[in-house]
Write the structure tokens for this entry.
Amino acid sequence: KDILPKVRRVVTFYDPDNRLSREAARLGREEAKRLGLNFVERHVTSVEELRQALQALKGGEADAYFFISSLIVTSHAQLVIDTARAKKLATMSQEQSLVVKGALASYGVSYHDAGRTSARYVQRILTGTSPKDLAVETVRKLELVVNLRTAREIGLTIPPNVLARADKVIK
């Protein structure tokens, strides 16, 4: 919403048979409602359905595309990114790797921090701490990554306040 203040409709594709995807869609639906956005969900259960859904997506049907983790969609992320760019849709993900591939932005867990947390666990186990004695930790640092090249291609100017908050900017 900060990147694209005039956003009204967000589309996503996911496999409804995937429990994790359904949960992510539920959370997306709730957040969209909180932000006053229309959350357009398209169910795809095969790569062919994904291709057809992407081709059928009309200009103006959505302002942005939101990636939900779904094996079918994630394994064909480049197709989604390329189609969204061609249709001038902003693309948002939790995966930094997709921004490198051309998605507009990501906001998600810092894999660097996750690696450091994992390394601390391993170090403690190797020095004699029993795994059952280790507290569960979560990665708290989230990183915002923005792709300015994609922004230019879809005719979008990233607001300065967003760029100032970005952890990484791809030029």
Q: What stands out?
A: Residues 19-35 form the longest helix (17 residues).
